Amino acid sequence: MTKTALITGITGQDGSYLAEQLLDKGYRVVGVVRRSSTTPYERIAHLVDRVELVSADLLDQTSLTDVVQAAAPDEIYNLAAQSFVQTSWNQPVLTGEFTALGVTRMLEALRKGAPKARFYQASSSEQFGKVVETPQRESTPFYPRSPYGVAKVYGHWITVNYRESFDLYAVSGILFNHESPRRGLEFVTRKISDGVARIKLGLQHELRLGNLDARRDWGFAGDYVDAMWRMLQQDEPDDYVIGTGETYSVREFCDLAFGAAGLDYRNHVVQDERFFRPAEVDLLVADPAKSKTQLGWTPKVNFRQLVEMMVEADLARYHRAQ
Hints:
Helix content: 40-55%
Number of domains: 2
Strand order of the largest sheet: 3-2-1-4-5-6-11
Radius of gyration: 19 Å
Number of helices: 10
Structural class: alpha/beta
Number of strands: 13
CATH superfamily of the largest domain: NAD(P)-binding Rossmann-like Domain
CATH class of the largest domain: Alpha Beta
Distance between the termini: 47 Å
CATH topology of the largest domain: Rossmann fold
C-alpha cells in the first residue's frame, strides 16, 4: 500500500531533497506551502508534477489541522521554520511564532487530525550554542545563543512533551549544519560558493564575511534527509543527533571553495564586523554514534566533495545565465 508523507517546508533545501527521496521510494508526497502572490518553487520545479501542494500556514492552527485531516498522512515531516540565525536577531518574535509555536500547532494538528501518523521535527545543533561538552550528543544540555536556537529548543521539548503526554510517535532530529547547491544565498556556505563563482567570472572582486574562525560540522543535505526518514521507520520513537563528527572552520571552507576555482581566498575575503553575531557560537561538532548504531546511517558525501559540489553548481548557474 502506498504511504503518504506530508512535508512542511517542501520548497526549502531539505524539503526538496526529502521529497525526491520519498518519491523514489514510492510515496505519495503532499507539500504544505504558504499562500502567496508569488510561487517560489525553484527548488522543487522538477517535482511539481509529482507532488500535491496544499496551502496552510504555521501561524494558523485551523489551516494546519485541515490539511492534516485531508491528507491522512502516514508520516509528517515538519521542516518549515524561520531558519536563518542572523534574521532571528532582527525578527525574534516572528522567529518564535514560526520556529517554536509553529511546532506546537503542527503537533496539535497531528493529535487531532492524524494521531496514528509518525511525526518528525527538525531540531538543530544551534540548540547546543555555547557548548558544555564536545562533541555534542543526544544527552548534551542545550545552551542556545540566538533567538533561533531558543525557538528550536522549544520546538524540541514540545515534541518530547507531546510524545510522552499523548503517546504519539514523534521524534526530533538534531541536525548539524547541512549544505548543498540548494542552500539559500544568505547562508555563509552558499554565500561563499556563490561569491567564488562571481569572482571567478569577474562579476565582483571581494567577498565580505564575518567570523572566519567559527567551526562547524558540515554535511550534505541529501544525506541528512535520509536520516530523517530512517528515524520514522524505527519500532519506537527517539531523538537522534545527525552529523559527520568532523569540524572545519569557515576559513577552511573558503580555502577549499576558492581553491576549487583556482583562486586564493586571501586575495578576496574581507572580514566585516557587520556579519558577526551578537553572541557567537564558536564550535559545534556532532557525536553521531547513536544514529550510526541504531539507524544504520552514515554520511556519503565528505567535506571536500560538498564544497566542490557547491562551487561547481554556482559556476554552472552563472555560465548558463551568460
